[in-house]
Amino acid sequence: MNILVVDDDADLREMLRHNLGKQHYKVGSAENGEEALDKLADDTYDLVLLDIMLPGDNGLDILRQVRGMGLKTPVIMLTARGDVDDRVMGLDLGADDYLAKPFSMSELLARIRAILRRGSERVPLLEAGDISLDTVSRAVRKSGEILELTSKEFSILEFLLYNKGRAVSRFNLAEHVWGDDFDPFTMSNFIDVHIKNLRQKIQNSGAPSIIRTLRMIGYIIDSQ
After folding, report:
1. What is the largest CA-CA distance in the chain?
2. Can you tell me the distance from the alpha carbon of 160 to that of 168, in angstroms, rounded to the nearest whole number?
3. Model-level pTM greater than 0.70?
4. Per-residue confidence (pLDDT) for residue 181, from 0 to 100
5. Start-to-end CA span in the chain (Å)
6. Do residues 41 and 71 touch, judged by C-beta distance below 8 A?
7. Cα separation of 188 and 190, whole Å?
8. What is the distance between the alpha carbons of residues 156 and 127, in angstroms, rounded to a whole number?
9. Going by DSSP bridges, is the β-strand pair 168-169/218-221 parallel, antiparallel, or unpaired?
10. pLDDT at residue 185 greater than cutoff 80
11. How many C-beta neighbours within 10 Å does residue 28 have?
12. What is the DSSP letter of 208?
């Protein structure tokens, strides 16, 4: 699962990146609204942690723009304010939850799990051809038979299926799967190796893979 943290406090961003990473979430970050909107346009996130008190456009402005773009990504608002009006406005604009600073990581993690669980219940199955991926049980099936995938192979397939019909760049795929640990200079062949192994597991013998390579761009699973 890919989470975007939007906050101008560098220490808080690093703390969240570290603690969410320990829970096996992939974490991206932005220090202002403009950067956040760019990242949301370029990548797919499962949840956004959005601070209200941002430089420039505040979190409520950003939330309004996010929903105006048609993005239904779950959003948890973070704020040091105790103003009930901000909370009401955030929820009215489409926020899924609201958490006042300072907060405990255990409470934040519980709220993240609850929201992601609701999202998984709405769209439990991702499918292409004879491949199905259950986002709740994390089971991948080919013609009804369970496939054994590594965690990285699962993350790659899940991300491509979420973006079915849309091109996914090698960089965005790597950032989603490996997060900040990805070094494009020393790990570029990691993507090729994992894609090759994944294709061998999901494609029919002699048939083209559902994962198509786009030269100089990345990969795509075509809409079917």
Report:
1. 62
2. 7
3. no
4. 66
5. 24
6. no
7. 5
8. 14
9. antiparallel
10. no
11. 23
12. P
